[in-house]
Amino acid sequence: MFSKKIPTAIIGVCALAFAAFGLASCSSSTTNNNPSQMFTSSLVNSHTHTVTLTMNQLQSPPAGGISLTTSSASGHTHSFAMTQAQLTTVDGGTDVNIVTGSSDVGGTHTHEFAISRWF
User: pTM for this structure?
Assistant: First the structure.
């Protein structure tokens, strides 16, 4: 009778080890390797805008920086620009706040974007 308990105990220990290994190997990572990231602006005059940056823009920033146009909202867009230094700063892990160009639609206003490294 003692010999029948040993295989049962071994099977139980193996099942427990398998379950523990399976749970450990399923842990999630906070790294996001998406090649691009969409950022949403501050809320001004009851609307926001978005802008999308790519990993390449941060990792190989052009000498002249980048100039983009935000998404359209409330019938207008804004200009969005980042210098090479700002792109390099974000790639290094430090957040940068960018203020858009002004728009006169719906009252003169700008929006602010908090740009952070996502990968």
Answer: 0.73
